[in-house]
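Consider this record:
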Amino acid sequence: MNKTLIFLSATMLGEVCMAGPFPLNFIPASDPGFTLWASEVVLERGPADVAETEEPVYYPNYGDESSALGPADATTGDEGNPFPVVSLGDGGVATVLIEMPFADGPGPDFCVFENSFNGTFLELAHVEVSSDGVNFFRFPSISQTQIEMQTQFLNATDIWNLAGRAPGGFGTPFDLAELKVLHPDLDTERITHVRVVDVVGSLNPAHRSLDSLGNPINDPYPTFHEFSGFDLDAVGAFAATPETFAGWLAMKQRTGPDALPGADPDRNGIPNLIEYLSGSGLLRVSKQGALAVLEFPRLSYRGDGMMRLEASEDFSNWTTLGTTQAGGVFTPSPGSPAVISESGEHRVLVRVTLPAASAPCFFRLAAEL
């Protein structure tokens, strides 16, 4: 996978001074690594000025859903005009369906493109992702811009995990690995939707937007015109969700000894094959009344390998309680006392119950090709 990560200098961004702690790690729209773009956009515009409530309320009308489809194509031009983008308005939301599900790979996984014409007039937005189109999880954002006075000009090095940091023609990158620990229920192996939520840059407590630390986010406000708020150009992703084990290894860039089924190159305690089949390898064990309850995920879209749940009383002799083959339904082994139920469509939660009085002391997940 080829990604051209660009670290822009202060001179390239005109008046920006390298004052803040965050790098200008932008990716050009021309990068050949982009293979997936938006195929559908659902738009909920906000008003041009959230503080103006007197009827009739004015809403921005620049662009439409089609303006954010396909590859990024907004350019700054000689006069800094918006060109093909859709304006969200204050607090407006664009929910983007990516043409194919995409996965967490090494480094950034997708970019959101805006059309800042000079790298200092930055209209910002929160970014959320979903693996089912229903439950969305937000990237933790940070804004260190001063909040003593309203500003029209920002320093991108003071801002992190907010779309719109990058100038036109460049994307703000996001790495799904940041959400794995924060949101273990998110299937980072199969992201289907990206949601972009305009930041209301007002410092008025009645209207302001906050970063993940509770700090007010200062960005150009008000912008009372037809292209008010965040101007969405495109959302592009790098790696489609792989189904085969070989494809998964290639996407993760694991080769040689690191590509063996039992290898653990990222040293997270989860062998490659189990990580491929389950997404996390997380096995939860609890006691609920007279039952021992075990829960773990399996990915129904994985086409290779078999995963087993095993039990032992002495950590030496192991008995198979149930198995799943090539992403299929998890079924109990002959003679197994396990009662098994499942929920979910793609990231399936497997729930195994055993009589607590007779349950073994140790459990593990095992897998083979």
